[in-house]
């Protein structure tokens, strides 16, 4: 893992009058997005594992100036008597210099910065790294919406990319919801979840139950739960300990993200209570074949 911090380069561009950010929107301009991509490429060049990556040449060609829809500007405008600057930027289109040339794949996931086509962040990443780039962004999804969708998807599980770029703006706090979201991502990225547990469904309520008495859970364990093919937006896990008390944890997906039906719930802080059983309920019905596994 490497971290690309573009602050110094963005600040230098601002001082040089190159306008890396909009005046009335928190997103970077296309020029700012290019600087972000160049910072990523510089960080990746220091990563020994990428020395053998297959690359090709990409070129970004400028197009017309485009106005970007901005809820932030519209909100700010209601408090201003004079017209705020338009959220407009030079558009770019990126293509491979040689059509069909082989190159390894990278994926960038993030927020509205990744999702805004006018900023061309995926294209600039291809140009800067020589890797073909796929992208997925969730506007206003914070640090975790897009990444949790991608890491729990079959696309990632069956064919992980050579490089995964996580776009996290300074406005998105990684600690906003404690350590549960990041622990879910860690488990989704590479945990061994081969130990299956039997789940039983209550036909009347749809609530699932599982016996945890022989699961040998520790504070480093995580449970992997698949809804069985249904798109469920929220899942609640009630861990019943040896003292008979239920301790609950929930996972909520963002309204704008793609629902994969896959969840990972860390057990840290619960193992000391000796969880004997588990109840699982969802915001909508589970499928016919839900699966529960222990990850180590």
Automatic annotation (TrEMBL):
A molecular function GO annotation: transferase activity
Pathway where it operates: Glycan biosynthesis; alginate biosynthesis
The organism's place on the tree of life at top rank: Bacteria
Signal among keywords: yes
Subcellular location: Periplasm
Chief localization: periplasm
Pfam family, one: ALGX
Domain AlgX/AlgJ SGNH hydrolase-like as annotated: residue spans: 3-169
The protein's name in its UniProt record: AlgX/AlgJ SGNH hydrolase-like domain-containing protein
GO cellular component: periplasmic space
Keywords attached to this entry: Alginate biosynthesis, Periplasm, Plasmid, Signal, Transferase
